[in-house]
Amino acid sequence: MDTIELLNQHRSQRTFSAKPINNELLSQLITTAQHAASSIFLQAYSFISITDPVLRQQIAAVTTMPFVQQNGHLLIVVADQHRNATLAQQQGLDPQLLSAADRFLASVEDATLATQNLVTAAESRGLGTVFLGSALNDAAKVIELLHLPKLTMPLFGLLIGYPDGENELKPRLPEAAVHFTNGYQEPTTYTAALTDYQQTLQQYYQARSHNARHADFDQVIRGALTSKHPRRELLTILHQQGFLNE
Ligand SMILES: Cc1cc2nc3c(=O)[nH]c(=O)nc-3n(C[C@H](O)[C@H](O)[C@H](O)COP(=O)(O)O)c2cc1C
């Protein structure tokens, strides 16, 4: 499949067959992840494969998502300036700048770009994936379970596996809402496009084969604002992990 077509066909996969991903394929996916661009080439991220069943259940409990207990290979993606700080100290350098907002953001960017590379590579091989931001529902627990040192921060999980069933394609916002020219445009300037999108998304939610419901984009925003897991402690945890202490 053409790469653009592959990307336009992306959908998250939450149910996987019992067929495991072999280690060679997993290594290939990690290699492809690593070829993503990286700020100052610091490659400031790590992937942690969760293979211990007890640990898997503990992390699944943090996500509160039952499908995480099932099939698929679980990775936890970590923003990681610890490795760079250690290597800096080994050559007698002060690593303080690696903890600043600039380098924290870059580590999130590096990790996310690498993970998206991995997702695209996985999909090109017939695998499905789902990001798990819900791994941060109890970030302190994940830090403890994985022994994450200072200057690391878990960002999300990623489940990868052979799809069991297929989801419908989820319609995205219209281009007018996300692509501006020479400056920002308020939503009030593309109201008609948004109204069309509300209808399109409503139809998608009503017709989809799993978890069909009455919803539109307003409902998506409302859901985010009334989440059971607002994760308000994350700034404190970032400070505890040594980040953003300028
Ligand atoms: C950072 C991030 C965190 C996410 N966390 C979760 C999650 O915890 N559980 C889940 O089921 N889906 C999660 N998703 C998947 C989104 O719900 C999904 O990408 C979005 O609804 C669009 O659907 P699609 O990927 O099927 O096109 C996450 C996606 C991203 C990018």
Automatic annotation (TrEMBL):
Q: Which residues form a coiled coil?
A: none
Establish whether keyword Oxidoreductase is in the entry: yes
The chain positions of domain Nitroreductase read 9-162
Pfam families associated with the record: Nitroreductase
Q: Which UniProt keywords apply?
A: Flavoprotein, FMN, NADP, Oxidoreductase
| Source species, domain of life | Bacteria
Query: InterPro entries from the entry?
Result: Flavin_OxRdtase_Frp, Nitroreductase, Nitroreductase-like
Instruction: Answer yes or no on keyword DNA-binding.
Output: no
Q: Which family does it belong to?
A: Belongs to the flavin oxidoreductase frp family.
Q: What is this protein called?
A: Nitroreductase family protein
